[in-house]
Amino acid sequence: xxxxxxxxxxxxxxxxxxxxxxxxxxxxxxxxxxxxxxxxxxxxxxxxxxxxxxxxxxxxxxxxxxxxxxxxxxxxxxxxxxxxxxxxxxxxxxxxxxxxxxxxxxxxxxxxxxxxxxxxxxxxxxxxxxxxxxxxxxxxxxxxxxxxxxxxxxxxxxxxxxxxxxxxxxxxxxxxxxxxxxxxxxxxxxxxxxxxxxxxxxxxxxxxxxxxxxxxxxxxxxxxxxxxxxxxxxxxxxxxxxxxxxxxxxxxxxxxxxxxxxxxxxxxxxxxxxxxxxxxxxxxxxxxxxxxxxxxxxxxxxxxxxxxxxxxxxxxxxxxxxxxxxx
Length: 327
Fold this sequence. Notes:
The chain is α+β, with helices and mostly antiparallel strands. It contains nine helices and 14 strands.
């Protein structure tokens, strides 16, 4: 029938049009065009490092008793975390042993930063990592030096790629200090993690800081008592705060202050002042002050430039029984 023939032709034309649309590729977006311009470079880099990857692949011992999805490259990529390659291969006992012992030693080394034991535990953690890597290489090499060289090269690359950046980050954010003398309420030998204070670091009332007070010499019979050098104490007031001390009661902006100098034996001198811009009020309360005149002198050097604040103490990490956050 004529109508059926016409419909058939229309169907053929539509089908042909559909084929034409499917064959023509969609127009690339700007992002895709930008990415394509870099693809040759990425593929070239892959070819550059292929000999190194193949060299490692030839020396990693996958064995026959592993899941089918395990590859030499998969093991190589998991080497930065001890025990992960073993878990990937299905060697659960060895994997958990390496993983647990490594992170336990690493945790202890972080908790003892600044003490002589830090290097010991950190070195033990690296030794566990090195052992886990060495266990992955073939023990049946004709030349035993092949296994040693392969392991050392992996350890060297992981040291450059993992431990060097990790050490930089840790010491950038946390600078450990050890007290060389008693600074009430802290004791000689206590170790703290501190954060360096820069121009952009916010300071708050109550922060325990390492600071340098304005230098002051106090004459005493037969000697001169000098207040100088790094001290540790609490920030009492910030720029613009109105401070008043009357009969030992400390008022900040007319309200009783919840923060007092760290040394509770320190008697606050009577004073009334407004903290200048770019300055803070920190009493060197660990100093031995014998009379009212000398306490007044100490009060005169308590208002220090903000730039004299070197760092904020965050945590006490040693001794273990006094470990915790410093409030």
